[in-house]
Amino acid sequence: MLGRLSISRYSPARKSENASSADNQQGSRSADGGVDPSETTRQPLGGSSSAVRREVARAYLLGALGDGTFNRLHRTFRFTQKEREWLEVLRRLLSVLGHRAWIYREGKARLVYALETSAKSLHEDRGALWCKTLSEQQAYVRGYFDAEGGIPQNPDAPLYVQFVQKDWESLAQVKGILERCGVTCGVIHNPSRRVDPEYWRFFVRRSAHQRFIRVVGSWHPRKAKLLQQRVKI
Length: 233
What we know:
The structure is a single chain. The protein is α+β, with helices and mostly antiparallel strands. The chain has a single domain (2-228), classed as Endonuclease I-creI. The protein has 6 helices and 8 strands, in the order βαββαββαββαβαα. The protein has helices spanning 54-64, 84-96, 134-148, 168-180, 209-215, 221-228, and strands at residues 11-12, 68-71, 76-81, 101-105, 113-117, 149-150, 162-165, 200-203. The strands form 2 sheets. A 5-stranded antiparallel β-sheet has the order 1-2-3-5-4, covered by helices on one side. Strands 6-7-8 form a 3-stranded antiparallel β-sheet. A hairpin with a 4-residue loop joins β2 (68-71) and β3 (76-81). α1 packs across α2 and α1 packs parallel to α3 (134-148). The radius of gyration is 17 Å and the shape is globular. The chain starts with 10 loop residues before the first strand and ends in a 5-residue tail after the last helix. 37% of the residues are buried. Mean pLDDT is 80; it is low at 1-10 and 15-42.
């Protein structure tokens, strides 16, 4: 979390170890006034973000901070991706909160894009503890998954859903939210303590894959497309 940042030009917004990404319709209203995520998260966020509540947009962005860095000098958050499309999703969600962001390419020889924002509301990051309602917690996990989650890139490969982090506490929070939503998970473990003692991960159990797709899903254009191909009618 931000309180643990070291003083450097760009510091991780959360101690992160991104998984090597092996990477609808309008829903009914939920009890807390938001759109039921079980019907709205199977595909990427649409062209308009006006239907997304501010609290849900912020929760998603807080979850996505694991893929970001924080510039202590300029007090800006920065996300980098080879795929500009997800950065556009982040920019639209930031606009819901009234924040501006700019996207640029990192050098002429690199196929890497960066989004930078000085969004003040992201400075108050307390992880999932900030999220009050179930829809906010699910949005937080969705953003966390889009930044930190791993799924097979090959749609013909056996499906797995994994979360990887160096922040054990935030990973445990995500696992707890998933299990409260009926998405059962394996234990948080370190696959190779000798290689990296702070490398933690867990998998969503195979029997819960379809429920994960329904209640969490993805707003990352590539991941959402891959998950949509796995939906069982």
